[in-house]
Amino acid sequence: MLDRNTTYPTLEINLQSILHNIKKITSLCHNNNISVAGVIKGCNGIPSVVKQFIQGRCDFLASSRIRHLKELKNNNFNCQTMLIRTPMLSEIDDVINYADISLNSEKQIIDKIEKECIKFNTYHKVILMFDLGDLREGYIDEQSFIDLALYIENKLSKVQLYGIGTNLGCYGSILPTTQNLNKLANLATIIESKIGRDLDMVSGGATSSLLLLLQNTIPKKINNLRIGEAFLTGRDLYDHYNCFVDFIKKDAFILKAEIIEIKEKPSYPIGTISVDSFGNRPTYPNIGVHKRALLAVGKQDFGCHEKLLPLDDDIQIIGSSSDHLIINLQNSKNDYKIGDIIEFSAFYQAVLYLTNSLSVNKVCT
Ligand SMILES: *Cc1c(COP(=O)(O)O)cnc(C)c1O
Fold it and tell me: How many helices (H) and strands (E) does the chain have?
């Protein structure tokens, strides 16, 4: 298990599993006339992972961070790029240079894009965002949404109305349904009748919208999805939405961390309990004295230990601080020693942190 040529903590990335997931899901989407924007923010745009997105036939590469898109263009990845967080006023020059398409929800920002495009004699495609109730980005008022779409179509010369879109299940935890996505579909039809042409894109959400596609209940008008989680960690559909999918691999990212201390200790802290290193007041169950280990990896690498799953089923995670992870070894059949490596599978949130941590060694297999 221990590889002396590796530095720890290591995040092992199985590119074949990622490619497998991407191929399965893009063909499902393509068979239903849905294009796919592969969202690379969850893996920090690591180039060897991004290569799988292209090989797996993603139609667009997307990120919320312009630096990821900049890297794509600088690495000559030949694919249309999509900025999926509405641009900052302060980054419009980068937006028109590195994003072919951006999601937008403010007229002031769109006007700035038009101005910059005129200055540099270029074009930019926008997707106008409508809020179906998740209460993050987008217009919630239908008339102002339609008005802005018409304004772009009729008044702007460099900004092109490429389509409309929505986002669900990110802030407000709202599930995509046939009903709420039909509202987006109807808005598309209204705008199309007013502008006298079809919109190129009606973007119906992220991984959670795959639920409707798998049940064959996604409105026909939806012709694009923006997928990240299902490609990388593949856990949301089953673990969060009770949707049984047997064709997605969940083993693409394995965290390997090294044991730096093993002691018999009680589980309940001794003395007056105040706050932990982050000012929180966790609860400490009392399970008595047990064998526990410290691992050299912490919250600043993985975010939150609840998003890690030990591969040894008999190990439980007890807690963590910024640079330590504490585990219970009492029930494990393995006789772990100092210097041994413990492996974890990870949910999307942990992968997002781990791929961004400078202290975590990344190894593709
Ligand atoms: C992150 C993000 C996505 C991808 O979501 P997944 O659940 O990872 O598929 C799609 N759209 C927007 C706007 C996002 O911010």
Answer: 11, 16
